[in-house]
Amino acid sequence: MYFAMASSSVEEGPITGDKTSQRDVCYFDATTQTDQGDYRRVLCFSPEKRVVFQQATVNKQSVKSIDTEKTATATRADLTSSCRVEAAQKPQRRSRRAAAAEQLPFPWREPRTTEKVSIADVLALGPRQRVGVVEARVLLATANRMVPLNGVPSELRVFEICDPTGQTALTLWDRQILSVQEGKSYRFAALSTRKEGDRTVLASSPQTVITAVGDVGQPPSVRMPAVAGDQTVRGQVTGVQIVVKPRCRRCHAGQESVAARSTTHRCEPCGILLRTNAYVFTYFGVVILARGNSEELSLTLTNSAVFHYVRKNCLARIAHDGPSLEEEVLGLSKLEATVNREGLVVCFGARSSGTGEWLSKAGRRAVERGGDLRVGRGV
After folding, report:
1. Cβ–Cβ < 8 Å for 16, 45
2. Of residues 266 and 226, more confidently modeled
3. Does the CA dihedral 211-217-220-226 come out positive or negative?
4. Taking the C-alpha atoms of 23, 29, 35 and 38 in order, what is their torsion angle to the nearest 10 degrees?
5. What is the mean pLDDT of residues 78-89?
6. What is the pLDDT of residues 116-139, one digit of tens each?
7. What are the residue ranges of CATH 2.40.50.140 in the chain?
8. Among 3, 245, 292, 378, fewest CB within 10 Å belongs to which?
9. What's the rounded Cα separation, in Å, for the pair 374 and 379?
10. Which CATH number fits domain 116-213: 2.60.40.420, 3.40.50.2000, 1.25.40.20, 2.40.50.140?
């Protein structure tokens, strides 16, 4: 007997996740709770029993299988949209009959893929575990670097986070970095764990959702890692490259060519047709500065640096146009950039004495007109 957690639609064909399955059969997948925190995949070969699983899932009732056979066939972490396996190494169960059962000696418990956990719970987990929801305060960024992802340079930033039960690290990517600020608290949904030495840390995925929440607090003692300070460099721009890379919201793959004036675009890898403004745009590139002593610096532009430059300078009209952004930056008489210890540009622009912000000519004109410095939708 076990609790039914979720069930898929009825399928006909070789068994999903079983490479040895050759014949076509009718079955449906289900996730079950067989103990206090043990979740397993079930294949039921009686399609008419799917309604039993559905009702038991809604009512949090137990289900009893008859003529159950355990197998050790391959499992996958994500079998269908409604069936997730918590422990990929545990054996599957093949069930031919199922019926509602009596009370079980352990309580129904939501899988970790959807429940809220504390930092202390995270620290007790092993690597490659899915974590549903964590609410934590962002302490500070400890690392920032560019990493090739599917052939495209992507920005990665590591933050120290905490709640009243403990402290750990969280890795965010590209646009997710723009969603958090140091000292504020957030709700992070759909994370995974990995090991960093003896400590379990968290990492985001393309499915991660970040929402601002009220202050969650911190433990009695907080470890603040030593972080090297940023460096400010100034010079004349002699060269710049800004690449604007659209990514599909469905498969997260980068697109090679999106027509600037087209309202729709078909994703090259997965083939889905989406509105152009539905794609997620990220930036990367290089800027070359000439300094007074004939020295030239080649600096790497990050997604967050270009995004903030576009937003502060009211450049929404050219936000998805790499060549136009390059012309805008090249037109700056002097550029000032903040560079972190990894040699990445954190922010850049031309210093405007009137506002204290780094603004381009267009940005300064907008400030003089009392303009809004927000970036338009889709950036």
Report:
1. no
2. 266
3. positive
4. 90
5. 29
6. 899 999 999 999 888 889 999 999
7. 116-213
8. 292
9. 10
10. 2.40.50.140
251: which residues sit within 8 A by CB, 6+ positions away?
A: 267, 269, 270, 272
Instruction: Give residues with Cβ within 8 angstroms of 227, minimum separation 6.
Output: 140, 141, 142, 341
Global pTM reads 0.63
Name the phi and psi angles at 294, rounded to 5: 65, 15
Both tokens of 24, joined, read 């076509």
- Rounded to the nearest angstrom, the gap between the alpha carbon of residue 319 and the centroid of all alpha carbons in its chain is 22
Beta strands 335-339 and 231-247 are: antiparallel
Total residue length of the chain: 379
Q: Collect all residues with Cβ–Cβ distance below 8 Å to 272 and sequence separation of at least 6.
A: 248, 250, 251, 266
Q: Could you tell me the two tokens for 340?
A: 């972190």
H helices present in the chain, as ranges: 50-59, 119-123, 303-312, 322-330, 361-368
Sign of CA dihedral 111, 112, 115, 120: positive
Query: What's the half-sphere exposure (Cβ side, CA atoms, 13 Å) at 290?
Result: 8
Tens digits of residue pLDDT in 198-208 = 999 999 988 89
CA distances 213 to 133, 135, 187, Å, are: 13, 8, 6
Q: What 3-state DSSP class applies to 277?
A: helix
The answer for residues whose C-beta is within 8 angstroms of residue 18's C-beta and 6 or more apart is 71, 73, 74
Is 276:324 a contact under the CB 8 Å cutoff?
Answer: no
